Amino acid sequence: MDVDSLAIEKLVHRGFGLGRHESRVWLVPFTLPGDVVTAGMVRDRGGHVEGEVRKVLEEGPGRTTPPCPWYGRCGGCHLQHADYDTQVRLKIDVLQETLKRTGGVQAPDPEIVTGEPWAWRSRAQFHVSGTTLGFYARGSRRIVEVEECPLVVPGLSALIPVVRKALGDFRFQGTWDLELVDGGSKGVVAVARGDGRKIRNLADGLVGLSGIEGSLAGIRAKRGYRWTQRGLTAVSRTTVDGRGKPASLESNARCFSQANGSLNLIFARTVMDFAGPVEGRRVLELYAGAGNLTYPLALSGADVMAVETDTRSIAAAAQAVRKNRNLKVRTVAGRSEDAVARAVESGQQYDLVVADPPRAGMKRLLKDLVRLGPRRLVLCSCEPSSLARDLAQLTLAGYRIDRLALVDMFPQTYHMETVVSLRSPRS
Ligand SMILES: C[S@@+](CC[C@H](N)C(=O)[O-])C[C@H]1O[C@@H](n2cnc3c(N)ncnc32)[C@H](O)[C@@H]1O
After folding, report:
1. Do 265 and 206 reside in the same domain of the chain?
2. Positive or negative: CA dihedral 94, 95, 101, 106
3. Does the beta carbon of 204 lie inside 6 Å of ligand 1?
4. pLDDT > 90 fraction of the chain, expressed in percent and rounded
5. Is 0.85 topped by the overall pTM?
6. Which domain holds residue 30?
């Protein structure tokens, strides 16, 4: 079924444009508010119709020509058809609407933090099948071959044809995943994941190519992966010190690090700004990763307990702060849920909790967090809908939202990072 003329009213979560036809909601990717398009039905999802653009009849404000030739086929980008100011404006609308509709949360207008709209990705995940190297197509596991990627930092993008050429020599027909991680001044680390011992040869075979200084090979096992390594495996990234100045941290290339390496510094600075003065304060940091926020908190004089499930990451965080004997940091390898429950049971008290959970948010620990009752909370989130649900519960328990920032860590995509500070009713 085609709709001859669908007017797009607004952008909604996941980058879809929303229009209405005969009292049904249509969600159409690659459209913008103000567009009028001819759309075809892709799927009837019951509550709404998922459509695709056949033709743009009228262009909404901010529409532009996407510079990437693979845009629309490659699943990595969703908003290249909007100029950057429009992208940011639309993300603000989506964030505010998601907080209101999903969480019933009334939040202050967000402070906006932006960086470079292109060439920001300092780690990139490719998929490989035989000599085909690229990104997954939108909503599928079909690989779209690319020659370069305008989102990826130039040093990594330039490696795409180099790696593809090497694949011809490997003569391996299987499928595997390859992540290229920019390690800063040290070089690039290739992280390969897949089935069978051949993965190790593939990863090792990339070392020495134009700037690839090391590799990690993960062979799928019954539980997780069995890892081997060659050459450089540590990468450095930039966070801030106690005075907001750039500071370099090292961790294994497999550890979580913010994909937007250059904006990470501003992200960390925003978290510290929202946290306010922390000198002498007891801080519980949940989902600490490899110490990206632990480091500035500790250097600002806080007494920090940092919790993280990934043992390699939390060991990197511990090592970073160990260099300075005056810092007060305890690192805990374990689940944040367990740490908060233990803290409640043992009557520990914290002035501030900083939490940066994965997409699912922190639903499982919210009840205990409210019982713990820190005066201040700073939450970071890369998923507005789980953030909305978490904020709904916290505001219901009496916490007030103080400040909100949209940090556009993921230009050209619908993803966004949000930082929120809250105060308890006691403060
Ligand atoms: C979004 S990252 C944030 C890391 C860090 N704050 C940063 O800026 O680099 C989320 C981290 O939470 C960790 N994680 C996931 N589930 C967890 C849990 N239940 N408890 C503690 N850490 C968890 C992941 O390993 C990951 O390092």
Report:
1. no
2. negative
3. no
4. 94
5. yes
6. 1-62
